[in-house]
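Can't paste images in this forum, so I'm doing it all in text. The chain is below; anyone willing to post the predicted structure tokens underneath?
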Amino acid sequence: MREYRGIFTVGITGASGAIYGIRLVNELIRQNYKVHLVVTDAGWQVFREELELDTSNRNEVIEHLFQENDEQFSYHTLQDYTAPIASGSYQNDGMIVIPCSMGTMSGIAHGSSRNLLERTADVMLKEGRPLIIVPRETPLNQIHLENMLKISKVGGKILPAMPGFYHLPKSMDDLINFVVGKALDNLGVEHELFTRWGEQK
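Text version of the structure:
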């Protein structure tokens, strides 16, 4: 059986910035991590609108975006509660929702578990495992802020999709890689996606 460096769950929702989640998943796969992916229905709409993908056959899109073997990468539908990530007994090293819509964040903050993504986030919190939320919304109203605080108080981490500029980005890829790199930092995954402050430019 193949040995992996760890196991992570990635959620992609209907917030703008699906490319963040896609880039993160591919970097985890490249570094030999096992990945479970859950995409909301609104997330699929973003795939279509922002990435101009034909999402009429979702399985084909998944194969196109994440060309990896079934053992290392698993895609789960929202209602697949038989997925191992739905249970606290599964040794999941952490979960990140990138990008995270305000609707999904609300569901997580209130423990709704309306679908597999929210259920898995709930499992992370109840088991004391890392849960990282990458919200992509502006401006934020009081409800959004209170939901972020709720998640933070019970052990989740809020990592807004805010690219830095001190590394002198020269392309859209540089901006995307900065946010994905910060997400990887908080998952404890080493990377070389951007030049850190104080490093040679």
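The domain at 7-187 is CATH 3.40.50.1950 (Rossmann fold). The CA atoms of residues 178 and 194 lie 6 Å apart.
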